[in-house]
Amino acid sequence: MHRCETMKAKQPDQELLAPAQSPLPKLLSALFYGTCSFLIVLVNKTVLTVYRFPSPVFLGVGQMVTTILVLYVSKLNKIIHFPDLDKSIPKKLFPLPLIYVGNHISGLSSIGKLSLPMFTVLRKFTIPLTLLLEVIILGKRFSLSIIISVFAVILGAFIAAGSDLAFSLEGYASVLLNDVFTAANGVYTKQKIDPKELGRYGVIFYNACFMVIPTVLISFFTGDFQQATNFKQWTNVFFIFQFLLSCVLGFLLMYSTVLCSHYNSALTTAVVGAIKNVSIAYIGMLFGGDYMFNMLNFIGLNISMAGGLRYSFLAIRGQDNPDCPIDEEKANPGSKS
């Protein structure tokens, strides 16, 4: 606490300006991430279940290739900037590329194994995992209000999952593995974009570049690639549109995740994803066709939503700042005036 107060005393002008500049980028980046994450789940669900596309890894390759092309063309046209490849970049990124591809593949593989509402419920376990990793890896601390909000989200997930009659061990294990990768990806992304050497675009571009070839090899040797080439819907214009839309949304999701983590925190990004997931669960109840209504499940979803909204309120007020979570207002009493 004393270290934080000393820093505030040394830089009063920056601290007074920060509250006025930070809320709008934080809010807009969170909304952008939530929208992209919402849309890609629906599109991927359509591609992998409605059209029964058998190759989730191949779809991941398409999203990586789209990311590389969009960023490289933008760099050539000087729309964006990131450093050229050199020997130091792999060291700067590690282990993010490995976590990135694990998150990508496990996420795509887990979508078709559970009903959409239960998939979104189990994805909430990303939140406590992210909080734990931020404490361990980034050395952050969180206020009691934040911890209680996170606990409410996970409690609701436990209640909702406990009423799932369509239990699938493989599906549950796949989604929980994706939770671990997602939490690690968010925390390490926050850590890697902090230095200015690579920047946001460099992190996204080189992640995709380093992992696209290994992912192609995985697709080829597991038979995923052959199933994709033999898929009969490639002549279906509507399927091609959904596939390409998934590729574009894959790029937008990567960018929006980095943007949200940059302006907020990895934990905030995870909570925004949880709120989005509950919204999808509500839609799945009405239109998905694979949801078996259960009052306990419905109560659990509402508890999770309440916890997520409470966290969002605290985050907007700046109480998700882990550097001085308890005494922030006392240390800067004139910030509201």
UniProtKB/TrEMBL annotation:
**Localization of this protein:** Membrane
Which sequence ranges are marked TM in the entry? 27-47, 53-73, 144-163, 169-189, 201-222, 234-254, 266-285, 291-309
Q: Which PANTHER family match?
A: SOLUTE CARRIER FAMILY 35
Which protein, by its recorded name, is this?
UDP-N-acetylglucosamine/UDP-glucose/GDP-mannose transporter
Q: InterPro entries given for it?
A: Sugar_P_trans_dom, TPT_transporter
Where would you say this protein principally sits, based on its record? membrane
Query: Topologically, how does it sit relative to the membrane?
Result: Multi-pass membrane protein
What keywords sit in the KW lines? Membrane, Transmembrane, Transmembrane helix
Q: Highest taxon of the source?
A: Eukaryota
UniProt feature coiled coil, ranges: none
Q: Which GO terms describe its cellular component?
A: membrane
Give the organism, scientific name.
Answer: Python bivittatus (Burmese python)
Domain Sugar phosphate transporter residues, every copy = 31-312
